[in-house]
Amino acid sequence: MNATKSRSLPFQPMLPTESEAKLARESGRLLAHCIGRGETARLRVIDRNDEIIEVPVSALRMLVDILAQMSDGNAITIVPIVAELTTQQAAEFLNVSRPHLVGLLEQNELPFRKVGTHRRVLFRDLLDYRERSRATSRNALETLAEQAQDLRMGY
Asked: Which domain holds residue 94?
């Protein structure tokens, strides 16, 4: 997730320096070529007395993605799927205003829980909502395109 715009997500991202971006590009390319087809991979860590570490290949793929984002100069952050966000954090993630997000909560469009007087939203629920919202938008655009074609509007 590219979070350069966000100021208050749970884990504050930092933009990579130019030298970090260059190193990320080189190491990400090399690491991508090392990923095998099995479920795990074994890495030798020279800085740890040639210690061998076995890691899930899925984690290596994620690391390659992180390095690719860094090489492009993007700030990134990793948010656990079970993280609870404030309404401001959730609004920033969805790129909507906080009052709009609160309206979504009050209309039961998004589940939440209260901690005292404050609402908290699970990150996974935000992801589900965003996907539903995007699907609804895609369907509406397809319907409009079909109507435009039926009316021979030149679209």
From this structure: 84-150
